[in-house]
Backbone:
DNA sequence: TCTCTTTTTGAGATCCTTTATCAATAGGCC
DNA sequence: GGCCTATTGATAAAGGATCTCAAAAAGAGA
């Protein structure tokens, strides 16, 4: 099993192609600023940098992957590890990001302006794939109702082997084979 | 939010009542021994003790809860922390237990001899409730197929507020009220 | 039963992710 | 600009899970 899951989508399958997007009134930085103001929090350079950076790409990511992408210590716009974690929590609380857990690590993805979806997880290559299904939420709602539960959200993870990993590894034909 | 989720089912709702059970040919210890032999592993007292203990109760549990229940150091049948983790991994690998993650911790539950199910999680009291739904697995299978995915398992978690926590806290009537 | 080989165990250290502490810094409102 | 308070970064530490390795023990064969 991979020590650390691949959380980046393949560059040839941008997420917009897969699931489209949802109309929103404000850009993520605007939305975040609104949230901060409503909470009496301050709009710092670190928070501005992070919200912009995070919404400039669509991949799933974990804290470490994100920190790798941010400026390092002694570079301009450096953001310390605690601040990264703190700001991630705020982005989740504000509804901009969603957080879930995979293989013992917290994974984040866009929520604001992004359609509801669930995930397929390849146990071989560790990749996460998104899918959208209309029926799931309704099914969950029914189940919750039957159990006198007030549902707030659901999380469905389908584990298995993706098509790429499932292909039998082709024997590479040598020059001799082709004679 | 609770620092540590309650993983124990309430004593008045034993799991058999909720979901029944599945007929199996071997007892869990027998099944585990079979697995060990097939892997050329040895049947040690520690492994026997753990498989017996774990299947003597039906609750979900995490490693720490389990260790609390096991004999402590300098008592008979003490099992060290690394061995507990090692054996849990073997119980999962053998198909006796299922492992999943909740609030950053690994949680284990019976798999062998126990019907397929998913969970409701109360965000307030942290309790886990099980439910069985016939349609989910089929739905997942369809989704997997559409995505050229070879499904191995799924995991559905419905989060919300349980009926108990959802009840408006009744004002306790004082003696004076009743006059 | 004894011996031998190999697995397993337990003590302790260590890893890894995430969070807490706290003094110094800097927003934002007057 | 000045003040008050939130925020940051350095550092330590919490917490779960795993690694290392010498000692112990299981199982196979004699």
Residues:
């Amino acid at each position: 099993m991979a020590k650390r899951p691949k959380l980046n989508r393949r560059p040839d399958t941008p997420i917009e192609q897969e699931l489209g997007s949802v109309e929103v009134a404000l850009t993520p930085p605007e939305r975040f600023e609104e949230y901060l103001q409503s909470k009496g929090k301050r709009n710092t350079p670190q928070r501005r940098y992070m919200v912009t950076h995070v919404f400039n790409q669509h991949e799933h990511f974990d804290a470490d992957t994100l920190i790798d992408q941010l400026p390092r210590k002694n570079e301009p716009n450096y953001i310390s590890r605690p601040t990264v974690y703190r700001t991630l929590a705020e982005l989740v609380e504000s509804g901009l990001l969603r957080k879930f857990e995979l293989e013992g690590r917290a994974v984040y993805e866009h929520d604001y302006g992004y359609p509801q979806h669930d995930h397929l997880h390849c146990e071989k290559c560790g990749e996460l794939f998104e899918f959208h299904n209309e029926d799931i939420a309704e099914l969950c709602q029914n189940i919750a109702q039957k159990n006198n539960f007030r549902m707030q959200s659901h999380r469905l993870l389908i584990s298995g082997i993706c098509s790429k990993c499932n292909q039998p590894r082709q024997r590479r034909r040598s020059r001799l084979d082709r004679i």
User: Anything to note?
Assistant: Chain B has two domains: 23-111, 115-163. Residues 8-17 of chain B have pLDDT under 50 and may be disordered. The beta strands of chain B are 61-62, 97-102, 105-110, 118-122, 128-131, 150-161. The first strand of chain B starts at residue 61 and ends at 62.
